[in-house]
Amino acid sequence: MTKKYFLPFLFLFLTGCSSYGPEELDRLTKEDPNFKQMIAARDQVHAQGHAIKEDLLTKKQAMDAQIDKLRAEYDTYAKLQNQKIERGQAAVDANRNLLKKDIEIEEARLVSKQAELDGYSKTLADVRKVLKESKGITFSSQEKQKWEEKTLLLSEKMRPLKEEIEDLNLQIRLKKSKMSFLR
Fold first, then answer.
1. What pLDDT score does 45 carry?
2. What are the DSSP calls for 152-165, one per residue?
3. What is the mean pLDDT of each run of 10 residues along the chain (183 residues)?
4. Could you tell me the end-to-end alpha-carbon distance of the chain, in angstroms, rounded to an integer?
């Protein structure tokens, strides 16, 4: 069927294809009291159905309003809780960054102290080499004592440096360990 004929047939189908109007209904209900009761029952069912639908719509609107209110309350609550989480995480991050800076400072001190110790070690090794391999050079007892005092002095300077380097290494390891727990 083409569109041209479809619409008129659809209209006739929806209107019931009947030419019965209110006058015909009035005539039929006067002639048949049982039919009148059927029509009354139909009207009552339609009225009840309409009332039920209205009640459902009212309840749905009330529930939707409650749901919207609860959703808004939840959104506000969730936002506050997420802000607490963010503030807590920021504090953890700040502590981790503080440890990281401390590690960087201590690593720089470690490099400096290690360079200082290396310098003393080289000087001490050179002095010992001179004393050991003094081919053709004779030292007086005073000069020899002076050189030995110098080696002793260098050794004395190196001991606290070694201890400080060990302590710095320990502190760096501890802070790195602490940092691993702040994730």
1. 96
2. HHHHHHHHHHHHHH
3. 53 54 90 90 95 97 97 97 96 95 97 95 86 72 83 90 96 95 87
4. 73
pTM greater than 0.70 (yes/no): no
Residue 67 tokens, joined: 């749901």
- The domain locations on the chain are 34-181
Burial, 179: exposed, middle or buried (Cβ in 10 Å; 0-12, 13-18, 19+)?
A: middle
**Residue 84 structure tokens:** 């607490």
Q: What is the pLDDT of residue 9?
A: 52
The DSSP call for residue 18 is: -
What is the number of other CB atoms lying within 10 angstroms of the CB of residue 168?
Answer: 19
Distances (CA, A) of 116 to 2, 27, 105, 173: 102, 122, 17, 21
pLDDT of residue 3: 53
Separation CA 97–CA 178 (nearest Å): 12
